[in-house]
Amino acid sequence: MNEQAQQTNATTANTKFCKHCGATIPADAVLCTACGRQVEEFHSASAQPNIVINNANTNTNTNMNVMGGRFGRPKNKWVAFLLCLLLGFFGAHKFYEGRVGTGILYLLTGGIFGIGWFIDTIILLFKPNPYYV
Asked: SS3 sequence, the chain?
């Protein structure tokens, strides 16, 4: 009996129980041999690595076209509507919006023969004020 007790003591001295599944595992085990979960912290021979983060980010957003999360330049709906209503055949509202190429096209074609002028007048009525171009 004495030999069995010594073997049992030697066995229990070199083992421990997994805190997750309760299985008997070697005393120096970091991972449970039964369930595979981590039982203890990993101990490395070297100390923790010294991590230095040098973040010298000095970038600033200089985009002046963003106003309130919207892109473009704000334009007054009523100014554009009056320009379109009175001088739409000459493309005045397109020049106001900064669309010079379309303004010249309206100027040369009489507001694209009146159809583009009529459509733009109706579209401007339904735009929010201010709208962004």
From this structure: CHHHHHHHHHHHHCEEECCCCCCEEECCCCECCCCCCECCCCCCCCCCCCCCCCCCCCCCCCCCCEECCEECCEECHHHHHHHHHHHHHHCHHHHHHCCHHHHHHHHHHHHHHCHHHHHHHHHHHCCCCCEEC
Contacts of 80 (CB under 8 A, 6+ apart): 93, 96, 97, 124, 127, 131
Q: Against a cut of 0.70, is the pTM above it?
A: no
Please give the C-alpha separations between residue 48 and each of 28, 69, 109, in angstroms, as whole numbers: 20, 44, 76
Query: pLDDT of the chain along its 133 residues, tens only?
Result: 555 555 555 555 788 888 889 899 988 888 888 898 888 776 665 666 678 888 888 887 776 555 555 567 888 889 999 988 988 888 888 899 888 998 899 889 988 898 988 999 999 999 888 888 8
